[in-house]
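Lab manual, section 2.4: Encoding a predicted structure.

Procedure: take the sequence of the chain (67 residues), apply the prediction step described in section 2.3, and record the output as structure tokens. A sample record is shown.
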Amino acid sequence: MIGNNLRRLRKKKGLSQEKLARLADISLNALTKIESGFAQKPTIQTVVKLSRALGISIDELVKNGKI
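Recorded output:
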């Protein structure tokens, strides 16, 4: 699930939710929903922003999940 991958990768990079939301230019609310699984299908634009902010590939972010 993308939320679990996102949370794991964010923590691995030492980022807070607030910092990642700022870096990705998305709302904290959106990030929280994705990580918690309430937003199970984020837009491709959001996925691209998050992967860039984390410095990882989209494949790594969505590994074992679908957009």
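Check your result against the sample. The chain has one domain: 2-62.
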